[in-house]
Amino acid sequence: MKLAVIGTGYVGLVTGAGFADMGNDVTCADIDEAKIAALRAGRIPIHEPGLDNIVAYNVSEERLSFTTDIAAAVQGAEVVFIAVGTPPGEDGSADLSHVLAAAAAVGRALRDYTVVVNKSTVPVGTAERVRRAIAAETKVPFTVASNPEFLKEGDAINDFMKPDRIVIGCDDPRARDVLRRLYEPFTRTSDRIIYMDTASAELTKYASNAMLATRISFMNDIARLCERLGADVELVRKGMGADPRIGPKFLVPGTGYGGSCFPKDVKALMATAREAGHGLELLEAVHRVNERQKQILVDKLLGHYQEASGAKGRRIAIWGLAFKPGTDDMREAPALVIIERLLAAGMTVALHDPVALEVARKLLGERAGVSWHQHPYDACAGADALVLVTEWHQFRRPNFGRIKSLLKAPLLFDGRNVWDPGQVRALGFTYYGIGRP
Fold first, then answer.
1. Contact at 8 Å (CB) between 48 and 327?
2. Which of 312, 377, 306, 365 is nearest to 336 (CA)?
3. Percentage of residues in the chain having pLDDT higher than 90
4. Which member of 28, 170, 226, 261 is catalytic?
5. Which string of DSSP letters, residue by residue, matches 378-397?
6. Angle (nearest 5°) at CA 169 between 163 and 173
7. What count of other Cβ atoms lies within 10 Å of the Cβ of residue 417?
8. How much of the chain exceeds pLDDT 70, in percent?
9. Residue 227: CB partners within 8 Å, gap ≥ 6?
10. For 2-196, CATH number?
């Protein structure tokens, strides 16, 4: 099939490459000339394992191409995916200006019947707004469908190629048949396509991310309670996760969720609920807990130094800046909150991340008190403490003897509970985890 994908961000690029890898002819379009030039030169603008290989292969096979000419991409396409950004406004609601602008551009380019699919994460009612935006530009018949993405950063290619479910919001039998044929190669072993109306599909995406965010905030709240009661949250979560009605996923406490999805989608769903006159009190609490949790490592660090000689002037090494392993995404990353607060307290920071260092540098700029290190142990040299924020695999079994020799004091703050407290304490470290005695 001939497809067009409007937007070459995280979702658009994975979607375009994934469909091309199944043999479709895909054109990815974007108004960002620099981004398209980079993609044509073989440079991927985001870090996503395996994405560079799948893009390069399908470009070489002439199934995947990039353009700034949206009209040329749309004309002749059976299906057009809108995969542009929906950043949060000041009130938390999703900004649909990019989506509606893309819809209008699609409408101007239509020549034959086309299925236009919202792939962007959008609030309930957006499909109708997109339909009106397209209809204002053309008399050519078309159908608007909703097909939310459920991709995990760091494992997006696997999620796209082997989806656990494909949600299609569409009432038009003709469009349903087109999308069914498009997704057939992904569902050969089992039929995982769930059909519904567009409003339900739009809400399914928000509700799914809100549920996962709720599990994270719940465990972070339980971790705080564990610290007051002398319980170990790692044992508590294992006991909980063994119940098949609960399961173990997203029950790991830490420094709060971040990234491009959970924070934005939680805020957008709360805004949608307020507009509908039904405030989601539980979700409001989830958001408050998450914002508070981003402060927890600094609270522990300041608490430690209040008992020692004070925090001001201390040098703190930080391992991990991206909001999660496997990505360079720094959007809403807890590390940013931690760094700003440490600097405000008069401390300096030595930063390391395997892939997100340059992204973080662009966000933070060249500032006094911040040093950047390509090697994790270089960040530790002369530091007063080591703070682990992102649980990259290479941080799970470090050389603790080397860390101890580099630090001024053997002091660890484990924001992801990846180190064994008994082991590191036996090596002479003072250890602080999340919800652990």
1. yes
2. 365
3. 94
4. 261
5. HHHTT-SEEEE-S--GGGSS
6. 110
7. 21
8. 99
9. 435, 436, 437
10. 3.40.50.720
8 A C-beta contact, residue 260 and residue 335 = no
List all residues 6 or more positions away from 90 whose beta carbon is below 8 Å from its beta carbon: none
Q: Please state which CATH number belongs to domain 205-292.
A: 1.10.1040.10
294-432 to CATH, choices 3.60.150.10, 3.30.1360.120, 3.40.50.720, 3.40.190.10: 3.40.50.720
Q: Please state, in angstroms and rounded to a whole number, the distance separating the CA atoms of residues 400 and 426.
A: 11
In angstroms, the CA 325 to CA 359 distance is 14
Distance from chain centroid for Cα 417: 21
The answer to whether 389 touches 319, Cβ cutoff 8 Å, is yes
Burial, 226: exposed, middle or buried (Cβ in 10 Å; 0-12, 13-18, 19+)?
buried
Q: Which helix (H) or strand (E) holds 240?
A: helix 233-241
Residue ranges in 307-381 assigned as alpha helix (H): 334-344, 357-364, 376-380
Does residue 385 surpass a pLDDT of 90?
Answer: yes
Spell 128-143 as b/e; 16+ CB within 10 A means b: ebbbebbeeebeeebb
**DSSP one-letter code for 94:** B
Q: Residues 166, 187: contact at Cβ < 8 Å?
A: yes
Report which residue type is found at 252: V
> Measured between alpha carbons, how far is 73 from 6 in angstroms, rounded to an integer?
8
Q: How far is CA 12 from CA 32, 36, 81, 84, in A?
A: 13, 12, 8, 7
Tokens 């695999």 sit at which residue? 393
Contact 317, 387 (CB under 8 A): yes
Q: Confidence band (pLDDT; 50, 70, 90) for 309?
A: low
Nearest to 334 by CA among 358, 347, 353, 315: 353
State CA 141 to chain mean position distance: 35
Domain chopping of the chain, boundaries:
2-196, 205-292, 294-432
Q: Can 28 be counted among the known catalytic residues?
A: no
Q: Quote the mean pLDDT of the chain.
A: 95
Q: Listing from the earlier edge strand, what are the strands of the sheet with 370-372?
A: 370-372, 348-352, 315-319, 385-388, 411-414, 430-432
Do the Cβ atoms of 321 and 351 come closer than 8 Å? Answer: yes
Report the distance separating Cα 340 and Cα 383, nearest Å.
Answer: 17
The model's pTM is 0.92
Per-residue pLDDT reduced to its tens digit, 407-429: 999 999 999 999 999 999 999 99
